[in-house]
Structure to design on (236 residues):
């Protein structure tokens, strides 16, 4: 893929075990891209990102002072990004940097305004993922609810790999500071009449760092919060 003007937004909180590999993988796939590491944690993530700037000139570490959550970090990244096209990529390496060109493709070709990576479309690969019943069932239930609000079928509302144009993200104007912003993106995009595409992606279990997804009660709570905030976003 020819290298256009792209910013990759990577929100981090205490990802010192993953950030170097994440940067190297993204830079390998998109060597001309701007890579923003938006760090709101307290470990060595920021220092590691800084140390890699010599070898990877596109890397821009950003301290997200007063970090209020992932949505807040992504908004910080959007404000700092210099490119007209942006992609979000999770630092935990459960998604694969090699899928970024496929996710960016529909936006770059002018076919859509927002592309969602999907772990559940035909062609996706979850062979490296260890299933978690409540998380997986919750994802499917939530995606069904978001589909109703969006007026179109959405197979994966919360995958941590997606892309958009600067104009689209301005129109979407998401406001949630935490994890509900991912569903809010879709609901607001649909309400604004923006074109949404889904692309199958690969998915693996986390091998380093902390995750809440093994705590069943927290997963249920998160799902209920996302549904409530998505409903509010639909009528905003």
């Amino acid at each position: 893929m020819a290298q256009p003007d792209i910013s990759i937004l990577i929100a981090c909180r205490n990802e010192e075990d993953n950030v170097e590999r994440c940067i190297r993988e993204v830079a390998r796939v998109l060597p001309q891209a701007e890579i923003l590491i938006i760090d709101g944690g307290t470990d060595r993530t920021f220092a590691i990102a800084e140390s890699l700037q010599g070898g990877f000139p596109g890397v821009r570490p950003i301290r997200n002072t007063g970090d209020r959550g992932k949505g807040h970090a992504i908004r910080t990244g959007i404000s700092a990004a210099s490119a007209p096209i942006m992609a979000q990529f999770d630092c935990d390496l459960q998604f694969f940097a090699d899928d970024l060109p496929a996710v960016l493709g529909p936006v770059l070709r002018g076919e859509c305004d927002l592309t969602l990576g999907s772990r559940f479309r035909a062609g996706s690969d979850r062979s490296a993922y260890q299933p978690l019943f409540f998380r997986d069932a919750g994802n499917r239930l939530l995606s069904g609810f978001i589909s109703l609000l969006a007026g179109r079928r959405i197979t994966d509302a919360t995958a941590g790999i997606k892309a958009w144009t600067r104009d689209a993200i301005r129109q979407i104007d998401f406001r949630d500071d935490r994890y509900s912003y991912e569903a809010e993106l879709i609901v607001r995009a649909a309400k604004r009449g923006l074109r949404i595409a889904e692309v199958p992606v690969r998915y693996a279990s986390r091998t380093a760092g902390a995750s809440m997804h093994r705590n069943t009660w927290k997963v249920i709570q998160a799902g209920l919060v996302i549904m409530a905030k998505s409903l509010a976003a639909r009528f905003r």
Remarks:
- The chain has a mean pLDDT of 92.
